[in-house]
């Protein structure tokens, strides 16, 4: 039995290790560590939702937590910047048929981040004292639809499907009750929902894009259940048998077996059926491709050749600006000079961006006692957010010109095999929705990373018109993409170059700005 428990634990930790993931991208690291440690201690009592997976982020996140450490979240929107609904897989089957095992195998075989597992067990109702007494005597019917809190389950699944944050109860099978804490989960690219009555409610059924029924022999289910309930759920043999004969078996016959008609796929033998799992995974991959989570390739060639948008503000050219560009574009410029001239250009671009902020007329007294009518910036709250790494090079200039400005950071990196941007880390000023945000990235090529960063800000309720994206150099297609997808975002740059290479570099460009500035080795997209 210990072996069984360890097996489950190993699955969980292998998921975790392989993808270095976690849970919600807005969960502080310490919480994640505690959460994992807690899971290791409480495998037997926890509900099965979520933590098996390579998880999940709210599309971004109206969470109070502002730090994320994830395996890298790929785009959760399409090339038009619109949020794409996750693919929901419903798994139904008798108790101990292997629903969780099948779900885990699908997650492993999918081998992609941002898959969330939601278990129906999390939605068992809170029992009255009398019902609790019945449960202790194995006389409460946990296999009847009335045992489940559909009023909580349906909106929870709905919110997850919309890519929003939810707090899911943690169920304890030993005490027959909910833990005092809940588990925060976020939307994902794939959501797996499993439970004995997963197909019972028509609204839940309608939310499932794919319905799987795990069909395992009744004797096998009973044998597994006996083992599990005694070893993991603190039950006695007689009690398990009594519950099985009086409630589990009749409910299976009455509610669960007839639900098989709703299934798209019936999986005999559960987790052992590798062919079925391969077919399911293949279908999910096809569906995800259709949904269009791949954005960068599309963006690279988007909108080129059209007039530059009115939301773009180009730093007025002068011999001085051209001179600075000449230094930083020259591949032979040594690093110290590259940094020096970049800093000068960054300062000019930042000052120019500030000139676009709202100003109001004010009158001051000069030392001569004469009035002077001037201007004062009327934006009350301004913050900077840098897209790491290259955007970090612009932070100092913002701090130099905006006293006490708060700086947030978003780490987006390109996945070297998919070429897609992935969100790795996020730390934003508190109440960022009330700020005018200067979003900084040294260069913008396809606009894919900028688009991800803007989506993050929007999902934190920053109004689109309060975002300025500031960059030294942008490719024309990047400018067009941002302007098309987010027409109210102001785009500020000192130059627009016409092309993008097949490795997504701006042409003629500067090369990899971050590598040249920080003196690091380039990493190439394969
Ligand atoms: N193919 C299998 N062979 C042996 N044991 C299995 C198999 N599938 C599941 N189990 C065990 O049976 C128990 C119930 O499996 P689980 O996947 O949790 O079922 P469900 O989610 O349907 O209740 C667990 O203890 C699990 O380890
Ligand atoms: N307090 C509880 C709650 C539920 N059960 C049984 O769990 C079964 C569902 O979980 P699976 O992992 O087997 O799908 C269900 O059949 C309930 O009888 C319980 O025993 N005690």
UniProtKB/TrEMBL annotation:
It catalyses: uridine + ATP = UMP + ADP + H(+); cytidine + ATP = CMP + ADP + H(+). Residues 88-275 form the Phosphoribulokinase/uridine kinase domain. Its EC number is 2.7.1.48. GO terms for biological process: CTP salvage; UMP salvage. The keyword Zinc does not apply. May contribute to UTP accumulation needed for blast transformation and proliferation. Belongs to the uridine kinase family. Interacts with RNF19B. One of its GO terms (cellular component) is cytoplasm. Keywords: ATP-binding, Cytoplasm, Kinase, Nucleotide-binding, Nucleus, Phosphoprotein, Transferase, Ubl conjugation. InterPro entries: P-loop_NTPase, PRK/URK, PRTase-like, PRTase_dom, Uridine_kinase-like. It is an enzyme of class 2 (transferase). Pfam families: PRK, UPRTase. This is Uridine kinase. Residues 317-520 form the Phosphoribosyltransferase domain. Pathway: Pyrimidine metabolism; UMP biosynthesis via salvage pathway; UMP from uridine: step 1/1; Pyrimidine metabolism; CTP biosynthesis via salvage pathway; CTP from cytidine: step 1/3. GO terms for molecular function: ATP binding; uridine kinase activity. It is found in: Cytoplasm; Nucleus.
